[in-house]
Amino acid sequence: MANIAKRASSALEESQPVWEYADAIESTEIVKLEDRYGLFIGGELVEPKSGRWFETINPATEETLAEVAEAGPEDVDLAVRAARTASTKWRKLPGSERAKYLYRIARQIQERAREFAVLETMDGGKPIKESRDVDVPLAAAHFFYYAGWADKLEYAFPNRGPRPIGVAGQVIPWNFPLLMAAWKLAPALATGNTVVLKPAETTPLTALLLSQVIREAELPPGVVNVVTGAGPTGAALVEHDDIDKIAFTGSTEVGKVIRRTIAGTGKRLTLELGGKAANIAFEDAPLDQAVEGIINGIFFNQGHVCCAGSRLLVQEPVFEPLLEKLKDRLQTLRVGNPLDKNTDVGAINSRAQLEKIQELVASGVDEGGEMYQPECVLPERGFWFRPTLFTKVSQSHRIAREEIFGPVLSILTFRTPAEAVEKANNTPYGLSAGIWTEKGSRILWMAERMKAGVVWANTFNRFDPTSPFGGYKESGFGREGGLQGLEPYLDLDPNGSS
Ligand code: NDP
Q1: For residues 342 and 333, what is the distance between their CA atoms, to the nearest angstrom?
Q2: Rounded to 10 degrees, what is the CA torsion of 438, 441, 443, 447?
Q3: Cα–Cα nearest to 23, from 125, 130, 128
């Protein structure tokens, strides 16, 4: 049947013209870039005491977008002091007053949504349709959602006297720069904490645009401070004596360093780290729907997603048809200019990340995996990687064990549900999982046995501010989102009821 369909389509191709999408490039005019961006400390953009600056580039073109201040320990200290000073008044403000600021920020993100989306795509390389339809609306939704909690903390934690912790140091990665800033800032501010935020080196611009919005929302100076820089800036923040809590999203490797650094200091910690999620397709799965979910699960944001469904486990009877459908679908993915509204897969975030993906993919080939990549022309400049599938993968292969954080799917098979559980949980990570089956009872049976913080059923990569997110094992601890996302920012009486 599949062969007949194929012959029919090639006969059709010979007689029909090939239809191509016309370019639909989003204009960048809405973005007004400065030549240089200082640090956002005490409500002002200030020059760094370190005297150092670094360039941030567009990974799709390798063009420099702007110079950004590199905060040294002295700058981090100033930011922490500003946050501490601001904390005295901010923590005493009635929740309903704090909420007003959060609502203002949320509305401003909505009003400036296009500007945020274009800038996010320029600085990070993700397709404009993703920054426009996912990152920016979700960032606004987080501020709206936590604004709603600000005056209801007593109801969220009854009889437990919720009190802000104080000053939070927040370190975020480059895969969802604005969204991660929102995940971190919104619950911290709603609960009465002040913040020093450290965006990733390769994607600082939307956090800096957000600091402009924060200033325009007239948030009291020092409540939010943004210190740009690379790893050492993050380390200086983590090591600062006057920080009460660290919230980190990034690699497991750095997460471990941070945990060791703050052990015994009394600082509170939440870690959202890597993942190697299993996306499990049973023989009774709606295959076409599953194909869309699998593609979205691994190629959304070029696979730069901690909860990406990077290991596909397929029940043996449907392995061949599912693989064929996946290959067909891969051929239709449009890779290229992230500012084109038709683009499905954009640029890899940095040269370093591209090299990491290339190295892991080479190991997959060396270890005996069979690689499939669609034919597609990649732009000459910038950092690109073709959507990639691997079959003949065994559980011991590096591509089945390590987080690639790129558009690379490793496909394995299983026979029984018990084997699927065993293989899915055979990973040091435990962030997310996906289950594709027609049977509700099987979904529940599987979900109970998955050691993963989030389990999606017949869908993947669904996010909502009301829903907690976080991991087990080397994927970290603590939850962000939902009512649970408030708790890491509060001191609570241990003996009250909730
Ligand atoms: P990192 O963990 O290095 O980066 C995350 C954030 O931590 C960045 O802001 C980074 O700064 C900062 N940072 C780096 N070193 C330190 C330190 N010692 N103390 C405090 N903060 C620090 O991730 P990478 O960018 O290096 O990516 C490497 C791998 O991590 C990826 O290939 C991927 O596998 C994984 N990763 C997972 C993410 C997730 O969401 N779970 C997100 C990002 C990466 P800067 O970037 O400026 O160096």
Answers
A1: 9
A2: 180
A3: 128
* Closest ligand 1 atom number to CA of residue 431: 41
The H or E element containing residue 20 is none
Contact 192, 93 (CB under 8 A): yes
DSSP 351-387: HHHHHHHHHHHHHHHHTTPEEE----PPPSSS-----
Q: Is 272 one of the catalytic residues? A: yes
Residue type, 456: W
CA 277–ligand 1 middle distance (angstroms): 19
Atom 45 of ligand 1, nearest CA residue: 230
Q: What would the pLDDT profile of 123-177 be if each residue is shown by its tens digit?
A: 999 999 999 999 999 999 999 999 999 999 999 999 999 999 999 999 999 999 9
- Residue 154 is a catalytic residue: no
For a pocket test of ligand 1, which of 56, 171, 349 has the largest count of ligand atoms closer than 8 A to its C-beta?
A: 171
Q: How confident is the model over 291-305, as a mean pLDDT? A: 98
Catalytic one among 272, 474, 480, 487?
272
Name the catalytic one among 26, 115, 306, 480.
306
Query: Is 497 in contact with 328 (CB distance < 8 Å)?
Result: no
* DSSP3 helix / strand / coil % (the chain, rounded to 5): 45, 15, 40
